[in-house]
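Changelog note: in this version the structure field was regenerated for every chain. One regenerated record is shown below for reference.
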Amino acid sequence: MTLTALPIALALLAQTAPVQPTTPAITRARPTPVGVPVDPKVVALRDRALTDDAAYAIVRDLTTQIGPRPDGSDQEAQARRWAVARLESLGFRNVRIEPYTLNHVWVRGGETGEIVAPVPQPLRLTALGNSGATPAGGITLPVVYFPTFNDLQLAPEGSLRGKIAFVSNQMHATQDGSSYGASGVARFVGPNLAAKKGAAAIVIRSVGTDHGRGPHTGTTNFEPGVTPIPAAALSVADAETLARVFALGRPVTLHLTLTPHIVPSRESGNVVAEVPGTDAAAGVVLIGGHLDSWDLGTGAIDDGAGVAITTGAAKLLMDSGPHRRTIRVVWFGDEESGGFGGAAYAKAHGQERHATAAESDFGADRVWRFQTNFAEAAKPIGDRLAAALGPLGIVRGRDPAGEGTDVEPILSAGKVAAVDLNQDGTRYFDYHHTPEDTLDRVDPVQLRQNVAAWATMLAVVADAPEEIGPVSPRS
């Protein structure tokens, strides 16, 4: 999962958003509709999904047989070939790789850090995507401490020349993940800001809600004309240690070595598969997740689970008989480095008729809320979804749908309706972009509930008699 496709200006504005404590957020739910019939076939499909393990087999085998899948890497290319074979074996139609060129591929190198003074000790850290490099022997420089990103913003121009900036923004868990935007700004644009203020390098407290020693990576952005500086995320535990060292009131010096490099271009691509519908004019139901992952873990929750959930649900629909609308499953490429797979899909398919678009990219914990942005004529579909999803413990939210880096380009014109199936993010940022993103973080029971939610949504939307056209405007 990434927010790096957002403009830098929006990320800067995110710092003003308050960080909320973990709450059920169920108070934002709409009442469940009364007297809305649910098709018995939908009920049967939903209940069957709760005992189906096809999705778990996909994420298990992807993380075991391929492992991490960094953007533009040989492993990602291998994963695309693996995906084609798997989707064909499951019975999907029109399975293919749709290639595109990925430019400016950032490749991780060596990465070490340590406190040199006043109390020498090693630090666990990892380079941020698009980080600049230190010399091979590293750099040893004094550190300036900023408890929050706002403090970094207030630093005078030029005040960081010849120094390493340390930003210690703290992130708190929320069910809907809303604190990511507020806390993540230190990663999204903090290195760019530090570079403009003269810093030789920057280290940030990982954008995560854990207290372990596994650092959280992720992409950062530098404005045109700003030379990238070395930028790393400290594990949360090590960032807290460094803050305590500063509390001793003595000058702090770090040694930092980061040696990433850039590959000008590589071929990449999206993997596409379909469950053909009976009415080509009714539009495509687009679903999926992203195939790429960061390299520290094996990409189980980000986003092996997402491609597994959506594929498992589509497989259930395929096996249940013909449906009105074509269901298109896309395993998007290169989401983590900026949503390039989603952009390539929109470029290739933007002129086709799409009814809805939705993606799963927030782990594998239970779906607790759904949202839509259907136009008035299609709003009865939302009522049927509420009635069918309610027994899974899923409430109907009040905000318009439209989340997801990979589907955002196809949704941006306002001609395609969105459906969001929101997962519980309370523990997601404990493991997001860390070495802990491994299969053991996937709870098979909650994964089945996700598949049941997606299969239910697909069954209702794919066969809806209403025409699903341009979406309702955002209020």
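Spot check on this record: The longest strand covers residues 93-107. Confidence is low (pLDDT under 50) at residues 3-27.
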